[in-house]
Amino acid sequence: MTVWEKLRPYGMVAPAIIIFSLFFIYPIFYMIYLSMFDWNFVSPTKTFVGLQNFKDLLTEPDFRQVLTNTTIYTVLTVTLTTGIALLLALWLNRKSFFHGFVQGAIFSPHIISLVSISLLWSWLMDPEYGLLNWVIGLAGFGKLEWLSHPSTSLISLVMVAVWKGLGYNALVFIAGLQSIPADIYEAASLDRSKPWTTFTKLILPMLSPTIFFLVIINMIGSFQVFETIAIMTQGGPVNSTNTLVYYIYEYGFRFFKIGYASAAGVILLFIVGILTMIYFKLLSNRVHYR
Amino acid sequence: MVKKLTALSLAIFMVVVLAACGSNGTTGKNGSTDNANSGAKAESTDSAASEKIVIKYWYAFGDKIEEAKLHMVKGFNESQDKIEVIAEHQGGYDDLHAKVQAAFAAGDAPAVSDLEIASTGVFARSGMLQELTVYAERDKDQLQLEDFNPGLMGNAYVDDKLFGLPFMRSTPILYKNVTMLKDAGLDPEGPKTWDELEQYSRVLKEKGKIGMTVPADIWFYEALVAQSGGQMLSEDGKSAAFNTPEGVAPVEFWKKLSSEGLIKIPVGDEAGATADKDWANQMSAFKFASTAGVTGSLEIAKGNGFELVTAFMPSNVSYGVPTGGCQLVMTSKSTEEEKEAAWEFIKWMTSKENTIYQHKHVGYLPTRLSAVESEELKTHFAENPQFKVAVDQLEYARPRPMENAYPEVTKIVKEAIEKAILDPKTAPQDALNAAAEKANKLLSK
User: Fold this and answer.
1) B102-151: per-residue pLDDT in tens?
2) How far is CA A128 from CA A38, B141, B251, in A?
3) Helix runs in B263-405, H state only
4) DSSP state of B111
5) Gene3D superfamilies in the record, alphabetically (chain A) (predicted)?
């Protein structure tokens, strides 16, 4: 074996490894390093403060609210998106022009840039001039404040996220439904299984890997929500829509406290890391039918 | 199938790569032959091009403001052949600041940038800005530093060192729909005080309108605190002063008027836009807005068929406003040569002629006393009195606080105001006390 033959595999993976280390591994460690300093990114003096940033963060009531907001947002977005998408998929899982059209229509938000979507919904949700309040008014109900009041702002953002995510989720569900072998259905119908029983005892278990995949992917995505918040509410009113990633941005790039922002970033990394670990753990030994 | 696809994509990939290599090769060759052939001539043009210093200038905002800035940059580039300024748009002030900071950390900052005045402190103290004192001293005959309106110089100095020159500066003013006031039988001269504003709003409400739509903006709040005779921060800047009676009065006032439906206080990201729309659609008679909007608002008033008059913001115990807008600053990591070029550019942009131009084009304040005194502006003011109000109001103007923690403090205060107004159970005093406690922690560091 020549030297070249020994080195060749390393040479082959080197580009990928270099890019991965440079743009993923190094920033993560740099962030962890920065989270222990008091620094504004440019000043020549960096002050080492140890775990003070974490202590400040965890005792800061605003940060606790940010965590609560993020959790509420995630739970609502994930349950609503996967729930509605599953129902839609059950309905759309047949071949006809109409069903194909509906499927295409609900998928279309997925390919539009989130920035455009945010601007669009800001207009729709304008309390005075927006289309939504006009429609509600026609139906004879009072105006809603949408993004302009702490009691409705977060749920308004959830609405946008669900609208955007529905198509993709439904598509994955349909794929999952179609991969269920037809003979199982046949067996069920021979046994005169009622539709509800077929759904709970057959479809749901067979779909569980898909459901699980979507729940985790949506969860990780929701934890990192940023664009809609930056464009539609900037965390307000009264901090009611401030979430983890926007909070990090705000402290890093508006108040120039990069150490503090990095500490929040480490916490985000920690949370998303745990979610991912649960995902792989459960995927490997629980959700399995074949 | 899969195999075919891979083969196909590989083929495409190779064609692309080869094509790229090929074209590189040919230009390389051509380039070298050209150089070899043309000799002395090419060299002389090369050196002329390298003598011309190219610097970047980053600016904020679009529309009329952008038009004015680009027009002046163009004028500068055409006025001489030594320096070429490339102007680049960077969004609003927050975006601009974040980008300048990131670019500075990466060693690629623009030589000159707009900088919102309240952020001068943070930027200067972290060493990102070049001190201008030496340049100003050297060119004092040409620069005429004392010609700048003293009311605008408060934010130009940080710890007694000059860091910026007033560029597109503003104060908030009151925009009045006089047609609406006359229809309601109100004296178009007012309202001059908070009480009058309340009375006017009551009359307007009876007519099915509202007095004003005003976002709980920190800049307007600063104005109302000044009008009540208060301060945002203590003299030394180490503690909050907005939870005093003078700081609570504006929130009480806003809360009272909005709870009675006399004014509307939208919150959220669209609040400013909502206020403008309500005013433009003649749902509200008044709006607070920067003097930067005079030209634009005059066009709206003309288009919608109503008469616009501008006035001082109403007083509580006295008149008072913060100044706002941006100044031009130089970043500190450029070469000496670039700094000289940047200084020439800053002098050009803040000259008497250009401050007159941008004032007429946009509505920002004329920053120089000689500009205000000039025949050109005197005629302009006589024809368009709406422009003069902000200049006169400067007598009551004050600088914005420049403490490092101030941007964060404004966020805390804004949240407290919104909370006090939106939640009937929260007393303004309590909300501001809680905000002051948080702010003190940040300011005392």
Assistant:
1) 899 888 899 999 999 988 988 898 889 999 999 988 888 888 888 898 88
2) 44, 55, 23
3) 271-280, 294-304, 336-349, 352-361, 369-373, 375-383, 388-393
4) S
5) MetI-like
Residue B26 has pLDDT above 60, yes or no: no
Out of B126, B269, B407, whose CB is closest to A232?
B269
Distance from CA of A66 to the nearest CA of B (A): 14
Contact B422 A127 (CB under 8 A): no
Topology alike, domains B52-169+324-398 and B172-322+405-443? yes
Nearest to B172 by CA among B325, B350, B11: B325
Structure confidence at residue A285 (pLDDT):
64
CB of A231 within 8 Å of any CB in chain B? yes
Dihedral over alpha carbons B423, B427, B433, B434 (to 10 degrees): -30
ipTM: 0.79
pLDDT band at B50 (very low <50, low <70, confident <90, very high): low
User: Hey, is the C-beta of B105 within 8 angstroms of any chain A C-beta?
Assistant: yes
> Considering only CB atoms, which chain B residues are within 8 Å of A253?
98, 101-102
Q: Does A255 touch chain B (CB under 8 A)?
A: yes
**For the CA atoms of B137, B138, B141, B143, what is the dihedral angle to 10 degrees?**
-70
Crossing angle, helix A26-34 and helix A258-285, to 10 degrees?
130
pTM for this entry: 0.82
CB nearest to B418's CB, from A129, A231, A236: A236
Whether B267 sits inside 8 A of A149 (CB atoms) is yes
Residue A147, chain B, CB below 8 Å: the answer is yes
The position carrying tokens 């670990």 is A277
Top mean-pLDDT range of B68-72, B237-241, B371-375: B68-72
Closest-CA distance of chain A to residue B425, Å: 14
Residue B282 structure tokens: 């003649």
Distance from CA of B435 to the nearest CA of A (A): 12
Among the four given CATH numbers 3.40.190.10, 3.40.50.980, 3.40.570.10, 1.10.10.10, the one describing domain B172-322+405-443: 3.40.190.10
Span B90-102, pLDDT tens digits: 988 888 998 998 8
Task: Specify if A30 maps to a domain.
Answer: no
Min Cα separation A196/chain B (Å):
40
Question: Domains of chain B: which residue ranges?
Answer: 52-169+324-398, 172-322+405-443
Q: Which residue has the tokens 């705000």?
A: A250
**CATH number for position A209:** 1.10.3720.10
Chain A residues whose CB is inside 8 A of the B94 CB are 254
Instruction: For domain B52-169+324-398, give the CATH number.
Output: 3.40.190.10
Distance (Å, whole) CA B289 – CA B389:
13
Answer whether residue A171 is part of any domain: yes
Q: Which of A44, A231, A239 is facing B415, going by the closest CB pair? A: A239
- Here the tokens at position B196 are 């009058």
Nearest CA in chain B to A126: B270
Range of the domain at A83: 52-285
Domains in chain A: how many in total? Answer: 1
Interface of A with B in 106-125 (CB under 8 A): 122
Q: Is residue A23 part of a domain?
A: no
Residues of B with Cβ-Cβ distance to A236 under 8 angstroms: 267-269, 414-415, 418
A246 domain residue, yes or no: yes
